[in-house]
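Here is the promised in-class demo. Please do not try to memorize the tokens; focus on the logic of going from shape to residues.
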């Protein structure tokens, strides 16, 4: 399992410090959700550990080596990043999009081989996109489009998958479709999933670990039950909420968050 860590990480935009002396470590094939209010630093954390942002201070380590010292192709063979709202050219088909996930495994100007084709078919199958492989990406529904992008990330064949708000703008059916897909990939292939989520109940239902962020700092880090508490939600989001345990067999052990007001 690839190990990813942030050591004394500090990231600034212009003169504004967004992350302050951040320490995080990811070493197990878990589903990890980053939660926090808008502007808390969640997406900045994801971009920093995914090598999309270079920190002003501190280091991001991938298997003990500075991630920015490694060749981009080598990092892309170990770690997939799916930003929020990715865009594709209008004439690009789903299959072509997924094939780009094989780029880190090819030589310069190299064409795909039989192994690439097998991986592309596997990624399409695992995301239930085989029947849509010939469709242009821009003609897909929101949920289908997100599955296509996840298929591309899967085609990289990495052990680490980073996603920024993968359920944004999707209806409740397609939100659960994406969350259940990520859960299945984690269980079946032991892929570590690190994602930014706004929906606290999705974080509680599908995560092994939740990290609550405020002002660029980690406020709580632990299991959903340890982090998604009335006290933490008041501190991080400024809301009042009730946290209920779910005894139903379909989601035994889960908790449900019911916000009912803002803190005064």
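The designed amino acids, position by position:
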């Amino acid at each position: 399992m690839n190990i990813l860590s942030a050591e004394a990480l500090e990231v600034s935009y212009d003169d504004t410090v967004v992350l302050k002396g951040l320490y995080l470590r990811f070493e197990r094939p878990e589903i990890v959700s980053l939660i926090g209010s808008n502007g808390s630093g969640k997406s900045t954390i994801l971009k920093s550990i995914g090598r999309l942002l270079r920190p002003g201070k501190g280091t991001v380590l991938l298997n003990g080596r500075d991630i920015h010292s490694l060749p981009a192709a080598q990092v892309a063979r170990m770690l997939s990043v799916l930003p929020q709202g990715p865009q594709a050219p209008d004439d690009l088909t789903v299959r072509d999009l997924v094939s780009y996930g094989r780029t880190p495994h090819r030589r310069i100007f190299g064409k795909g081989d039989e192994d690439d084709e097998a991986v592309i078919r596997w990624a399409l199958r695992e995301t239930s996109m085989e029947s849509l492989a010939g469709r242009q990406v821009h003609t897909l529904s929101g949920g289908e489009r997100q599955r296509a992008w996840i298929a591309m990330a899967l085609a990289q064949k990495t052990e680490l998958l980073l996603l920024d708000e993968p359920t944004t703008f999707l209806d409740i059916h397609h939100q659960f479709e994406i969350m259940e897909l990520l859960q299945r990939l984690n269980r079946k292939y032991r892929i570590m999933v690190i994602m930014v989520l706004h929906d606290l109940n999705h974080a509680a239902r599908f995560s092994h670990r939740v990290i609550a962020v405020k002002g660029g700092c980690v406020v709580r880090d632990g299991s959903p039950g340890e982090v998604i508490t009335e006290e933490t939600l008041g501190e991080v989001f400024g809301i009042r909420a009730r946290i209920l345990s779910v005894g139903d067999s379909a989601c035994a052990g889960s908790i449900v968050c019911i916000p009912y007001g803002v803190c005064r």
